[in-house]
Task: inverse folding
């Protein structure tokens, strides 16, 4: 079956760095997405990786290893507004999005 | 966990025809469902918020008469793309919020890929 695993919840301190991991097992691979979702709001796109390596975008970076079925989202210089859920999603060979359950990130002062 | 199912997962149609996509919450009731459109390698774009028993709320720039939304029950919302054209080809995805659970958590369907020839 197809499966996306990410931690349920993480806690970090304002100003620090946090890494949210995502492992996947899917039938085929057409890219991996990270979304941010604040409570009660629609998710917003953060990153897309289809090739191995690190993609940096400001304070956020996303890494992909296709051979390991692994990705992580790295958040630097954490701010209180970064408290949200972070969703990992993989597009399989049929271009279906397989979603992880999301990681709730709690930022403490 | 809460499961949201979309059908069909893939549809190909001729230009000028209408296509209906269903979004079902399988093990929970959803008073609110959301419809998104996603272009390749792009973010989900919220199209409309579907409320059970009332009219949907459309985002700016989304044609109401083009994308008909019906949320007739607590477990089913439908999106009908009327008089489809090739530019309507896209990936449509729905999500639902669990009734009574005030966490803001959304559960997403698998998505429906529409190709208009």
Result:
């Amino acid at each position: 079956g197809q499966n996306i695993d990410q931690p349920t919840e993480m806690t970090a301190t304002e100003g620090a760095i946090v890494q949210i991991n995502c492992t996947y097992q899917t039938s085929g691979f057409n890219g991996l997405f990270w979304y941010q979702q604040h409570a009660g709001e629609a998710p917003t796109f953060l990153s897309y990786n289809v090739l191995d390596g690190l993609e940096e975008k400001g304070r956020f970076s996303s890494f992909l290893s296709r051979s390991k079925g692994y990705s992580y989202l790295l958040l630097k210089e954490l701010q209180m507004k970064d408290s949200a859920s972070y969703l990992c999603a993989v597009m399989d060979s049929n271009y279906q999005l397989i979603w992880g359950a999301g990681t709730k990130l709690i930022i403490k002062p | 966990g809460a499961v949201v199912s979309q059908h069909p997962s893939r549809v190909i149609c001729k230009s000028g025809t209408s296509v209906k996509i269903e979004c079902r919450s399988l093990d929970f009731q959803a008073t609110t469902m959301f419809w998104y459109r996603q272009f390749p390698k792009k973010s989900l774009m919220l199209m409309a918020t579907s409320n059970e028993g009332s009219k949907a709320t459309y985002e700016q720039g989304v044609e109401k008469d083009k994308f008909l939304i019906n949320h007739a029950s607590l477990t089913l919302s439908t999106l009908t793309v009327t008089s489809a054209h090739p530019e309507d080809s896209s990936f449509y995805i729905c999500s639902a919020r669990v009734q009574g659970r005030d966490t803001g958590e959304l559960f997403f369907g698998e998505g429906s890929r529409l190709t208009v020839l």
User: Anything to note?
Assistant: Chain A has a mean pLDDT of 89. The radius of gyration of chain A is 13 Å. Chain A is about 0% helix and 55% strand.
